[in-house]
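Entry type: protein chain
Record version: 2
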Amino acid sequence: MKAIQVNNIIKLLLIILVLLFAVYVWPKPYRNMPNYRGGSIPFRIHRITGTGEIWRGEGWVETK
């Protein structure tokens, strides 16, 4: 009986760890494109909307 309870606690902890990983680590809202123009200009694409942004010193600027 005690072994079943410990087993359930371990399963619950694993589920919680997977959920925390899914929320805080993956997926990030942006996908970075390291090879854009030879990697000289930071470029990222929003995974949901598909909009692209380029880094322009002061901040991210949406491309058209």
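Comment: Strands lie at 30-32, 43-46, 52-55, 60-62.
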